């Protein structure tokens, strides 16, 4: 999996591309998590480039969510294809994520929203 990271409007925008590798969690701890270790971090994850959303990819999202939550931050996901959105809609475990269609809508009221599913 490749991480493309940039900062925009005070938030970290992270694009996940490809497929999670066998050692993805170790890479995640080494490469990405140090950037998230700041109080109140705001993270928006772009899922456009994911090849699939399987157990390894969900593991990556779970680790990111835990770190953002530990930092009292905000996490949002966007650019879900219809098949990915369907997985989030029917699986109650995935409804902890706030889902948006695009980057601009993911910024709406960012500082005030808790880390949970949007309507």
Automatic annotation (TrEMBL):
Signal peptide residues on this chain, from the entry's feature table: none
Span of domain STAS: 1-110
Superkingdom of this protein's organism: Bacteria
Transmembrane segments: none
Listed InterPro entries: STAS_dom, STAS_dom_sf
SUPFAM superfamilies named in the record: SpoIIaa-like
Record protein name field: STAS domain-containing protein
Species this chain originates from: Candidatus Methylomirabilis limnetica
């Amino acid at each position: 999996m490749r991480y493309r990271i940039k900062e925009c409007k005070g938030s970290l925008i992270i694009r996940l591309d490809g497929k999670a590798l066998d050692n993805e969690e170790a890479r995640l701890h080494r490469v990405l998590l140090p950037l998230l270790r700041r109080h109140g971090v705001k993270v928006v994850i772009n899922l456009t480039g994911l090849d699939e959303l399987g157990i390894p990819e969900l593991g990556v999202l779970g680790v990111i969510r835990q770190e953002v939550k530990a930092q009292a931050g905000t996490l949002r996901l966007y650019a879900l294809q219809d098949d990915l959105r369907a997985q989030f809609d029917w699986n109650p475990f995935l409804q902890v994520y706030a889902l948006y269609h695009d980057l601009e809508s993911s910024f709406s009221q960012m500082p005030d929203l808790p880390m949970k599913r949007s309507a």
